[in-house]
Amino acid sequence: MPNERPTTRVLAMLELLQDRPGISGPELARRLGVGERTVRRYAAHLTDLGIPVSAGRGRYGGYRLPPAFRLPPLALTGAEAAAVVLGLLSGLPHGLPDGSAESALAKINRVLPKPLADQVAALRDTFTRTPPPDTSAPPGPRIALDLAGAARDRRRVRITYRSWRGETSTRDLDPYGLVLHGGRWYVTGLDSRRAAIRVFRVDRVRSLEAAADPRATPPPPGYDPVAQLTAALGEVAGRHRVRVLLHTSLEQAARRIPPAAATLVRTADGVLLETRAERLDTMAGYLAGLGCPLTVHHPAELREALDRLSHSLASSATRTGETKGPDHER
């Protein structure tokens, strides 16, 4: 927020104090984009305005307002309202059930200034949404919020979970974080059933309650929920392990194949490509599009998929040639 006026940042600090009682000085400084000394100056300014901000020390210290202190709701600025509307529109394909996002958007639109309301209407009229990646139901709002609260407060919860196979199980979970990826919500955490950190789809959590022992095991130092999810999705992204020797240079292969798609290793005979694939026919088409000779090491079924693709293309080319008349010949 370096280009904002100090008054705007003071009001933003007030909003944070109402939303997160006990927020620390370093966290306020990070969120406001200022130094901790400036945060102390903002707190003094709010106190001068009759808003009693207190600053405590120690583990449970931080800045806070008195428990009974409440301000009337602050009106959204045009930029804030636009940000909320854009967020709701972006989330509609994977939004909350029962039309919650649509309802919230309609309520906000009714109180927007007319010029901004007209712009929002234009955006909605020209906004195109792609369908979700699958037909799974969105996560239950209450379950998602309870998981987030448990992750923040380091509380263990007991969940009833339905796997992709349709099997239902109950387990204790120490949630570490929620991640939105590809239109789906995931929660990572320590699974008591496996005694390992795992990833769960939030929309498959059927129920949630406090565990008998609410003390959660903290995550390892430097734990990253996004990295955990990425690794987990990589393991299940493809059923088939693929090893193919590309008869080309490493430089040429790297221009065609992004690092996230496969591992490339230079060898005496070319470049060894290693990756995983869910569908071998799709992998065959991808390899054919690389435009270089190749040798399939594993699996043998990939060679069969390439043969089928080759025959299909040859057959298609033959049929196309048969439809051409004399005028197309050269």
Query: Which structural class should the secondary elements be placed in?
Result: alpha+beta
Give the DSSP E fraction (strand runs of 2 or more residues). 15-25%
Number of strands: 11
Termini gap: 67 Å
Q: The CATH topology of the largest domain, please? A: SH3 type barrels
DSSP helix fraction = 40-55%
Q: What is the CA-atom radius of gyration, in angstroms?
A: 28 Å
Tally of distinct domains = 4
Low-confidence stretches: 325-330
Number of helices: 11
Largest sheet: 5 strands, antiparallel
For this structure, what is the CATH class of the largest domain? Mainly Beta
Question: Can you tell me the CATH architecture of the largest domain?
Answer: Roll
On the 0 to 100 scale, the average pLDDT is: 80
Strand order of the largest sheet: 6-5-4-3-7
Helix and strand string, N-terminal first? HHHEEHHHHEEEEEHEHEEHEH
What report would you give on this structure?
The chain has four domains: 6-64, Arc Repressor Mutant, subunit A, CATH 1.10.10.10; 78-126, no CATH class; 141-224, SH3 type barrels (Roll); 240-319, Alpha-Beta Plaits. The protein is 42% helix and 24% strand. It has helices at 6-19, 25-32, 36-48, 78-91, 100-111, 114-126, 141-153, 225-236, 250-256, 280-288, 300-322; strands spanning 54-56, 62-64, 155-162, 168-181, 184-191, 196-201, 205-215, 240-246, 263-267, 270-277, 294-298. The strands form three sheets. It has a five-stranded antiparallel beta sheet with strand order 6-5-4-3-7. The protein has a four-stranded antiparallel beta sheet with strand order 9-10-8-11, with helices on one face. A two-stranded antiparallel ribbon has the order 1-2.
